[in-house]
Design a protein that fits this description.
This protein is mainly α. 52% of the residues lie in helices and 6% in strands. It has twelve helices and five strands. The chain has helices spanning 16-29, 54-70, 88-97, 102-106, 109-117, 124-139, 152-169, 214-222, 240-253, 257-261, 267-293, 296-325; strands spanning 4-8, 38-42, 79-82, 144-146, 177-179. β1 (4-8), α1 (16-29) and β2 form a beta-alpha-beta unit. α2 (54-70) packs across α11. It is globular and about 75 Å long. It starts with a strand and ends in a 10-residue tail after the last helix. Bound molecules: adenosine-5'-triphosphate and magnesium ion. Adenosine-5'-triphosphate binds next to β1 and α1.
């Protein structure tokens, strides 16, 4: 059996990197004959690890679910739900903490980066969230986790914890692996091409949000950072800004960034082509979003059904893990 899973944390606004790196690969992997083979969830619990606005997290959870459906995640062909609606996530989190080393999580790159940036007290959950992410993955017997490069280390942790738990307490979890999407694994901020495009980037960053007005998308792309070279070429190491524009174009139109470069003589022309391609992808998505947002009852219904389906898969995993790790069953064994 193969099953892939991706979480979306409602800690900012979804952008074209999320679409290319995560949402589209899920939509492409969905199967009518096995709707539980692709799992997409809104990881609202992970949004509580940094200073957060409660009303905004709630609002974005619904916005994210609506955007995922608008982007082609079809509840008839995949499993879509909100993490906090499925209590097994927090239940397994604790059990996995009992199989994870402090040193193992302390050295996670995202913890170092995010805790370093914080002005307020660093929440303990920021340290332990990779363990919650391991629970997210292991609950569903996930075999493949399609992620951008930034999340690879967390999937490695989930692997290590699963292997250790299985070795110590007996075979309980499927061991997952990270898979990178083939094109544009890591789109960059168009104003700061040394940084990846990110939901949590400060205002005024070069992030192309899925719900930005077409005019705003065009303005952002027009102001993208390039370089002073005279030609257009795909050289990610030395010319990251231009390479990122070519990667964006390739992600929107298909094709290979290095080959696409040959079709342009200057940056003005390249930016216009990128803007047209981005708008051509996002305008229809925004249209579907508006239709779905007009009927929130439908989206709530999808999420309610999704949570029930998710729980039916997750509950037996938690039961097996509790049994293996040494907890007494709350029911006498059957038969
Ligand atoms: P944050 O800044 O809060 O970490 P993010 O933009 O990195 O936000 P995540 O919630 O961490 O988004 O990731 C959601 C999914 O999108 C993951 O599968 C992640 O690998 C992918 N992803 C995130 N940013 C990019 C990017 N710039 N290019 C490609 N894929 C991305
Ligand atoms: Mg991230």
């Amino acid at each position: 059996m193969s099953r892939n899973l991706t979480g979306f944390t409602p800690s900012g606004r979804l952008h074209i990197g999320n679409l290319v790196g995560a949402m589209r690969p899920i939509a492409a992997a969905q199967r009518a004959d096995d709707p539980d083979a692709t799992v997409a969830f809104i990881s609202d619990l992970h949004a509580l690890t940094l200073d957060h606005d409660p009303a905004l997290v709630r609002e974005r959870t619904l916005e994210f679910a609506t955007l995922l459906i608008a982007a082609g995640i079809d509840p008839e062909r995949s499993l879509l739900f909100v993490q906090s609606h499925v209590a097994e996530h927090t239940e397994l989190h604790y059990l996995l903490e009992c199989a994870t080393g402090f040193g193992e999580v302390r050295r996670m790159i995202q913890f170092k980066e995010k805790s370093g940036r914080q002005e307020q007290q660093v929440r303990l959950s920021l340290l332990t969230y990779p363990v919650l992410m391991a629970a997210d993955i292991l609950l569903y017997g996930t075999t493949e986790v399609p992620v951008g490069a930034d999340q690879r280390q967390h999937v490695e942790l989930a692997r290590a914890v699963a292997e250790r738990f299985n070795a110590r307490y007996g075979p309980t979890f499927a061991v997952p692996r990270a898979v990178l999407p083939p094109v544009a694994p890591r789109l960059r901020d168009v104003f700061r091409p040394e940084e990846k495009m990110s939901k949590s980037a400060p205002p005024g960053s070069g992030v192309l949000h899925l719900l930005d007005e077409p005019a705003a998308l065009r303005r952002t792309i027009a102001r993208a950072v390039t370089d002073s070279a005279a030609d257009v070429a795909y050289e990610p190491e030395t010319r990251p800004g231009v390479a990122n524009l070519l990667a964006l174009l390739a992600a929107c139109t298909g094709g290979d960034p290095a080959e696409l470069a040959g079709g342009f003589t200057g940056y003005g022309e390249l930016k216009r082509a990128v803007a047209d391609a981005v708008v051509a992808v996002l305008e229809p998505l925004q249209q579907r979003y508006a239709e779905l947002a007009a009927d929130p009852g439908y989206v709530h219904g999808v999420l309610r059904d999704g949570a029930a389906r998710a729980s039916a898969i997750a509950a037996p995993t938690v039961r097996a893990a509790k049994q293996a790790i040494g907890l007494m069953a709350d029911q006498p064994p059957q038969g």
